[in-house]
Specification:
Length: 232
């Protein structure tokens, strides 16, 4: 009986890891991505990246470029998120002309990656228990944002505003650090979520699935970003 239980545990673990691999979110930049970037390149101020000021100027222009993608002035869903089963990759988002935090954070991250920045996806969710268990859909409020690695460290970026987690002394903050800082926490948005002491999960792009290839149900992760949940 113990041997059968051991085999079942091993088989379950292999199946789970296989599922994560199949349903992983790819970090690769595609031809379609560069087509999308070309649509907003006039907003960018990234010709020089010699110092921190140059980095901030470039990052700000990236945020504004992505925020400009609402030219169709349509929002057929209550939160501007696309219905389940629709791709949220940059070119699909650009062609629709609308999108919510998930589409915009993905665009921010890929555009910053194309410019040489390292990024990680931030899934912010009303806490219902232990961190990585919050990927189970329980009607929690949630928000998608990003963090970008600058010469001063990781800095949080909102997706639906041009908020950057930086103070008046030009110190940068991650979302986890901002939640521990009384001045920074006042800047965080959306307020209704950050007032509830949310959980921060790195590398989780969707709890429900259907947003990335192969377009199947279940949580979607960027496997290389999961390490940040453990302090690496």
């Amino acid at each position: 009986m113990k041997f059968k239980l051991f085999l079942f545990s091993i088989a379950s673990m292999i199946s789970f890891l296989g599922y994560l691999y199949i349903n992983k979110v790819s970090p690769n930049l595609t031809h379609d991505d560069f087509t999308a970037f070309s649509k907003v390149e006039n907003y960018l101020s990234c010709n020089k990246l010699n110092n921190f000021d140059d980095e901030i100027r470039c990052i700000d222009s990236v945020q504004n470029a992505v925020l400009s993608v609402d030219y169709l002035d349509v929002c057929p869903t209550y939160d501007c998120c696309v219905p389940k089963g629709n791709s949220i990759e940059p070119l699909d988002f650009y062609k629709r002309g609308y999108g919510c935090c998930f589409e915009r954070s993905r665009f921010n991250e890929k555009l910053l990656n194309s410019l040489g920045f390292k990024t990680r996806h931030v899934f912010i969710i009303e806490s219902k228990g232990i961190s990585l268990m919050n990927f189970i859909p329980l009607n929690q409020s949630s928000h998608a944002a990003s963090e970008v690695l600058t010469s001063k460290g990781w800095m949080g970026l909102d997706s639906i505003t041009n908020l950057k987690l930086i103070d008046e002394d030009m110190n940068v903050f991650t979302y986890k650090q901002a939640l521990q800082n009384s001045k920074m926490i006042e800047k965080l948005t959306p307020k209704y979520l950050f007032d509830r002491n949310p959980d921060i999960i790195y590398g989780m792009y969707s709890r429900h699935g259907y947003s990335f290839s192969p377009n199947i149900p279940g949580p979607e992760f960027a496997l290389k970003e999961l390490k940040y949940n453990f302090g690496f």
